[in-house]
User: Which sequence fits this backbone?
């Protein structure tokens, strides 16, 4: 599967972290190639979110490395990791709830904004540096709003939007950062099936059209098997198996773990 | 009639120094939800050092005042960096208690170094000069304080609303984790917030010092500034300024017509009243505590 002489895009080596005796992650290693959708599955409490938190610097791992484009990023601050080009959405939505959709997405552009000492300069000087810069960023944000179909809520406070729409805004904000690697933590949780279909479509499009590499955590087996290039299965903080969707769903432990979930089972079969 | 107008004008005049303290407190509260009870004493230290520079080393005003402001800025940076940031597993209540500790330390230091007896601060304007409009008098120092408060309010308002830094501050306040994931250095933002706030507080101190200068000089303006900020909803800069005017005016009316002894307590009576009727403050827009 892996070719030796490719430069590694993203790699986790022997990552471990524990919380007061509980090994949340134990010796996790895997590699992600540029442009793929790499999914992480496992039962509740397996350590999936903890892995994301280690990657973007919210947690400091006890041991191991995380390498992104040749640079070690474990133990670095979240804002630093973000500026390197790793974007993220959360299982429990972390938005600026008292700002509009537009403002949330503009904050995704924050790391690119240089001038902006007086952002309002746009009012009287559209051709000033700040004005032109602002226009460029707004255009980028407009593209994302179109892409994710958010026109109708662009000026609404995100705190008042339905759950599924908030998830969309959060994805939009992550895209506004133009990340090279995007971490999506259960992007479809709490969504109805129609919203889910849209989300799956966008994730595929983010991979195909925008060329962004995606690390995905998701419980919906059909979706995972459908869109992933490769899958990592973890349980109790340890790796169970790793491979293509076909390989993974034949693994006995995976079969056993998801046996109880009737609807998922028939999808896998 | 003339007497009433005079009382109102003096109320607004005294409200202006509360307004500056209120602005200083709102700036920190806006980004971190911490009420900084050391605000007054941070200004106190800057003011006493200015006094030292003027009286002991005989520097001119144009050196002493800018250096005071620069010192205040650095003091704010320093306290945030060296003290508040060191708090392990910080929560808002713990932070507020730290600021109370800081307040005591700074006050103790100033009292020990400079003594408790009142001093006279030199100032380019005498507090006894006054301007008159018909029968209404305001001291030129009061007029200056009024202008400075309104100017700072406007500048800060525009700055926080439109600058990259201001937007980063707003993001930090609403969701620190999300702000960091946008690449915002939230620690640095907090440090800058403390610096700016300390600078505004120092401006208040320098304008208060010509009238009264001893280690307790900032306590009353700080509490009234806090009251004004609460009236304004804690996060609104214009709100805190108008809150301060309301407190200044009501206080003066009360002192003039009802009871001079309870004049100072009026501010707190107003706070209780407002918190009972409109808990989010008079000027808060859509501010709801995040959960
Ligand atoms: N900050 C923390 N302090 C203590 N324990 C933690 C902390 N973060 C995670 N854990 C523990 O680590 C384990 C893994 O949690 P994690 O959130 O990574 O699970 P998950 O795989 O994302 O589960 P889910 O599918 O429910 O989201 C859990 O037992 C959790 O209680
Ligand atoms: Mg999780």
Assistant:
């Amino acid at each position: 599967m892996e070719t030796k002489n490719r430069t590694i895009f993203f790699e986790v080596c022997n990552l471990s972290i524990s919380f007061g005796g509980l090994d949340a992650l134990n010796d996790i290693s895997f590699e992600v190639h540029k442009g793929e959708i790499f999914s992480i599955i496992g039962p509740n409490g397996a350590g999936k979110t903890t892995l994301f938190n280690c990657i973007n610097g919210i947690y400091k791992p006890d041991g191991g490395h995380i390498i992104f484009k040749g640079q070690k990023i474990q133990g670095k601050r979240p804002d630093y990791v973000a500026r390197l080009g790793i974007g993220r959405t959360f299982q429990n939505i972390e938005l600026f709830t008292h700002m509009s959709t537009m403002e949330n997405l503009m904050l995704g552009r924050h790391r690119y904004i240089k001038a902006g000492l007086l952002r309002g300069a746009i009012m009287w000087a559209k051709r000033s540096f700040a004005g032109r810069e602002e226009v460029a960023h707004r255009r980028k944000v407009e593209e994302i709003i179109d892409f994710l179909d958010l026109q109708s809520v662009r000026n609404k406070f995100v705190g008042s939007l339905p759950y599924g729409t908030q998830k969309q805004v959060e994805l939009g904000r992550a895209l506004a950062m133009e990340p090279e690697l995007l971490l999506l933590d259960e992007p479809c949780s709490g969504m109805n099936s129609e919203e889910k279909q849209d989300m799956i479509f966008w994730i595929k499009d983010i991979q195909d059209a925008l060329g962004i590499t995606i690390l995905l955590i998701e419980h919906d087996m059909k979706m995972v098997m459908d869109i992933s290039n490769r899958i990592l299965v973890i349980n109790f903080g340890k790796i169970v198996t790793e491979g293509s969707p076909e390989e993974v769903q034949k693994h006995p432990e995976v079969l056993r773990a998801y046996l109880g979930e009737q609807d998922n089972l028939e999808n896998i079969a | 009639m003339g007497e009433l107008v005079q009382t109102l004008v003096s109320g607004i005049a005294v409200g202006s120094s509360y307004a500056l303290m209120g602005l200083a407190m709102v700036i920190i509260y806006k980004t971190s939800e911490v009420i900084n009870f050391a605000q007054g004493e941070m200004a106190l230290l800057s003011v006493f050092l200015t006094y030292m520079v003027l009286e002991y080393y005989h520097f001119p005003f144009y050196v002493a005042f800018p250096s005071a402001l620069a010192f205040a800025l650095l003091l704010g940076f320093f306290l945030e960096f060296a003290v508040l940031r060191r708090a392990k597993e910080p929560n808002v209540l713990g932070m507020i208690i730290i600021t109370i500790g800081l307040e005591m330390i700074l006050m103790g230091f100033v009292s020990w170094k400079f003594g408790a007896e009142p001093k006279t601060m030199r100032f380019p304007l005498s507090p006894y000069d006054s301007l008159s409009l018909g029968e209404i008098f305001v001291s030129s120092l009061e007029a200056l304080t009024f202008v400075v408060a309104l100017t700072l309010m406007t500048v800060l308002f525009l700055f926080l609303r439109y600058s990259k830094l201001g937007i980063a501050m707003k993001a930090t306040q609403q969701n620190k984790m999300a702000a960091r994931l946008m690449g915002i250095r939230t620690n640095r933002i907090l440090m800058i917030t403390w610096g700016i706030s300390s600078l505004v507080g120092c401006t208040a101190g320098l304008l208060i010092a010509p009238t009264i200068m001893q280690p307790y000089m900032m306590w009353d303006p700080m509490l009234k500034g806090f009251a004004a900020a609460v009236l304004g909803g804690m996060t609104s800069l214009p709100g805190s300024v108008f809150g301060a005017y309301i407190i200044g005016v009501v206080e003066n009316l009360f002192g003039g017509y009802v009871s001079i002894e309870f004049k100072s307590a009026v501010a707190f009576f107003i706070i209780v009243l407002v918190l009972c009727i409109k808990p989010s403050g008079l000027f808060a827009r859509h501010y709801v505590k995040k959960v």
